[in-house]
Amino acid sequence: MKLFIDTANVAEITEAASWGILDGVTTNPSLVAKEGRSYHELVAEICRIVPGPVSAEVLATDAEGMEREGRELAGIAENVVVKLPITQDGIKVCSHFSEEGIATNLTLCFSPAQALLVAKAGATYVSPFVGRIDDVGQDGMQLVREIVQIYDAYEFPTQVLVASVRHPQHVVESALAGADVATVPLKVLQLLFRHPLTDIGLQHFLSDFREAKDVH
Question: What is the CATH number of domain 2-215?
Answer without folding.
Answer: 3.20.20.70
